[in-house]
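Known limitations

Structure tokens in this collection are predictions and should be treated as such. Users comparing against experimental data should check residue numbering before alignment. To illustrate the layout, the record for Holin is reproduced below. The input appears on top and the generated tokens appear beneath it.
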Amino acid sequence: MVRRSVPFDTPEREPMNLPANIRTLIPVIVGVIVGAAVHHASSRGIVIPEGSLAEVVTPVVSGAVTVAYFAAGRFLETRVPARVRTVGRVLLTWGLTRQTPAYGPAGEVEASRAAA
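Generated tokens:
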């Protein structure tokens, strides 16, 4: 069976969801930066226990910061008054996009895109 190539601009092919990718990568980048800062600080005098525990601290801190950063951004974007929502959106996108991806089952997402 030979599959034909479908151009990106046809409805048969879903384009990459750039806003969702940006909103995923920004918290990861923040987590990596904070993890690297913790690792750097540990080599500059902040005491982190020696041995295998020291190798676990940096990834755990990075992961925790990533999750907390994303959760804070989503909370500010969805659960606070409208004038504060922009803060959450900026936290999650650093101003790279103004779009908020539609989350939910595929049928509902397609219906909300068609209505917009």
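For this record: The radius of gyration is 20 Å. The chain has four helices and no strands. Please report discrepancies through the issue tracker.
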